[in-house]
């Protein structure tokens, strides 16, 4: 049995202009993704988080993020670094005009 290496970081889910959500991780500048639904956005967030993490920065507290993003939905996203899925859909490969 493989030992888990699960890490958790807060993600900020922003409504985007064409429907769906854009997801950012305040502690990890390059970890950004999106999805048409909240569920799809959560799955993509876990994939992007796992692919992006190399040196782990400290996670910001939810309380601190609630002050920075008072109108956004904020949720911790966890990923097992030993089980990272290789099929993420990075934001730069998503045609957001199709999400309507």
**Structural class of the secondary elements?**
alpha+beta
Number of helices: 2
User: How is the largest sheet built, in terms of strand order?
Assistant: 3-2-1-4
Strand content: 25-35%
Largest sheet: 4 strands, antiparallel
Task: Specify the overall morphology.
Answer: globular
Q: If you average the pLDDT, what whole number results?
A: 79
Order of helices and strands: EEEHHE
User: What percent of residues adopt helix (DSSP H or I)?
Assistant: 10-25%
What is the first-to-last residue Cα distance? 43 Å
Question: What is the number of beta strands?
Answer: 4
Spans where pLDDT lies below 50 across 5 or more residues: 93-100
Give the radius of gyration. Answer: 13 Å
Could you characterize what this model shows?
The protein is of the alpha+beta class. The chain has helices spanning 38-52, 62-68, and strands spanning 6-15, 21-24, 32-35, 73-80. 24% of the residues are buried.
List its traits:
100 residues, alpha+beta, 4-stranded antiparallel sheet, 2 helices, 22% helix, 26% strand, globular, disordered C terminus
Short recap of the structure:
By secondary structure, this protein is an alpha+beta fold. The chain contains two helices and four strands, in the order E-E-E-H-H-E. The chain has helices spanning 38-52, 62-68; strands at 6-15, 21-24, 32-35, 73-80.
């Amino acid at each position: 049995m493989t030992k888990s290496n699960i890490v958790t970081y807060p993600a900020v889910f922003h409504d985007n202009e064409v429907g769906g959500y854009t997801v950012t991780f305040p502690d990890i500048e390059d970890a950004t993704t999106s999805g048409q639904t909240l569920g799809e956005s959560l799955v993509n967030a876990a994939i992007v988080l796992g692919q992006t993490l190399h040196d782990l920065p400290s996670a910001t507290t939810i309380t601190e993020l609630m002050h920075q993003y008072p109108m956004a939905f904020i949720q911790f996203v966890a990923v097992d670094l030993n089980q990272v899925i290789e099929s993420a859909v990075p934001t730069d490969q998503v045609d957001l005009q199709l999400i309507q």
